[in-house]
Amino acid sequence: MKITLVFLSLLFFIGCGGSSEPPMTQATNKKDLKEPFYNEQWALHYDKKFYDDNDIDKDAHIYITNTFKKYRGKGVTIAVIDTSLDTNHFEIKQSIKKAINIKDKSSNVNCQTCEDAYHGNAVTGIIAANINNKGIRGIAPEANIIFIKLDLSGYVSDSEFLDAFHLAIENKADIINCSWGTDDVSDVVKSEIERLSTEARNGKGVIFVFATGNETKRITNDESAIKSVIGVGSSDERNLRAVYSNFGKGLDILAPGGYEIGISTIYPNDELMTAKGTQRFLGTSASTPIVSGAIALMLEANPRLSRVDVQNILQNSSDKIGNIPYEDGKNDYYGYGKINVDKAISLIDNNNKD
Amino acid sequence: MGERVKKSIFMMILICSSLYAQNTNYYIQNGEKVYLHKISNDTRSLQNDTAWYQKENGDIIGIKKTLFVMMHDNLDINELLKEYNLTIIKRYTDKLFLLKSYTNKTLSLTHKINSTKKYYAYPNIAKKIQVR
User: Which domain CATH number covers A269?
Assistant: First the structure.
């Protein structure tokens, strides 16, 4: 309660009534300007030409440009549990610290013939695309990535889920990104997620970030609905909830997932998926790594933050977008609102000064 | 609708419910029984470490020949292993184990273990999931 009150007071001083920051017309880091597709990364920043050309609401991005001046995810480890990864991709190879295939525990996680093989690449690229002036910018380009391959196109057993989570913890993950879900989480998996969210990271709790799904339906017995999990839905170019994004009590926060325009990221074999390319990455799978990357920046700002601290900060710094009233800061369609990274980091930095 | 037809429907419902009540093909989730119907003619059945079932909502799941057991305090796992002919595959924590069962009736085994009230047993379920 005390922590919440401190955050609320801080919010008052930095201005909590929606998106008070004026649209930025320039990237804040000269290096970023040289990423050839940075102007298309509408989810991250306001680019007047791209926004005007594509009729994007000026507040549709996540307000992260000030944070990019200071933080890149250094010292933070994110486990990405997903389908497949081209670990030699030029945008991410510097960030991949370990790759594990859950089937045989080998480091072979690249399966280009697998169904949805692109998916693991797309998710990882949003978090980790390096600053190299060759393509796009990831949200936490200096974070360590542990990639764990699950056969998400087939049947996965509860023991494989637990193996993946435990491998992430053994490899010192601070955050576990899961851009998938079952709608049918078993009691034993639920109980272990809750335990790890409390006991891992030396008692601070590992931070599970799950996608809520894209079926325009109420979230039921899903991983994203577990109380200690951050359930992520999608916002669109209009800065409203994307119509496909699932809703309900399990939804905590929104991040851009797009509707007609995709979220720029990587594709196997050194290729990119750009916002308006022939293949586009859309949905809550794209929104989830945006939140995971942002949390990595928060943990770089203050590595002592617990999972509960992170949840409180996100709740108190999110922008209350949309036209549906929020009760006690939340509603079923927007959760606590859309992530605002600069506000979240301001809360942490101001608290660090105290 | 005639009185006899109504009576017959009522009897059928009664018989079906009583058959369902005796069905041991279920597991407990969120405190409620999830009933399962075994699928025999399915290519997935070729995997001999998994039995395949259909849930009431139509979803297909696999029940592996392994099970989770959560120990209550001050209990010895070896007693359980001996009594039910189980071996340890993995120890996740001091209290949570993945065990191998040598019976084809894994669901019944979990019910039997749970009925002792000393351990909490849960089947290892394989399910289809979707990237989002």
Answer: 3.40.50.200
Give the total residue count for chain A: 354
Partners of residue B43 in chain A, C-beta under 8 Å: none
Domain count, chain B: 1
Which phi and psi (to 5°) does residue B99 adopt?
-120, 150
CB contact under 8 A, B98 and A159: yes
Q: Which domain holds residue B60?
A: 3-127
| B132 part of a folded domain | no
Euclidean distance between CA atoms A167 and A97, whole angstroms: 13
* Phi, psi for residue A71 in degrees, rounded to 5: -130, 145
Interface of B with A (CB under 8 A): 28-30, 44, 59, 61-62, 64, 66, 68, 70, 89-90, 92-93, 96, 98, 122, 124-132
Q: How many angstroms separate the CA atoms of A348 and A337, rounded?
A: 19
- Predicted model pTM: 0.88
Exposed, middle or buried, A349 (CB in 10 Å: 0-12/13-18/19+)?
A: middle
Which of A159, A161, A227, A285 is most worth mutating to test chain B (most B CB atoms within 10 A of its CB)? A159
Q: Does A179 touch chain B (CB under 8 A)?
A: yes
Residue A228, domain extent:
2-353
State the pLDDT confidence band at B14, using cuts at 50, 70 and 90: low
Select the more confidently predicted residue: B11 or A129: A129
pLDDT in the model for residue A1: 38
| Count of domains for chain A | 1
ipTM of the complex: 0.85
Question: What value does the mean pLDDT of chain A take?
Answer: 91
Q: How far is it, in rounded angstroms, from Cα A335 to Cα B81?
A: 46
A152, B30: Cβ pair inside 8 Å?
no
Asked whether residue B15 is domain-assigned, the answer is yes
Residue A116's pLDDT is what?
A: 87
Q: What CATH code is carried by the domain that includes residue B116?
A: 3.30.70
Q: Is residue B83 part of a domain?
A: yes
Confidence of residue B5 (pLDDT cuts 50, 70, 90): low
Report chain A residues whose CB lies below 8 A from the CB of B126. 155-158
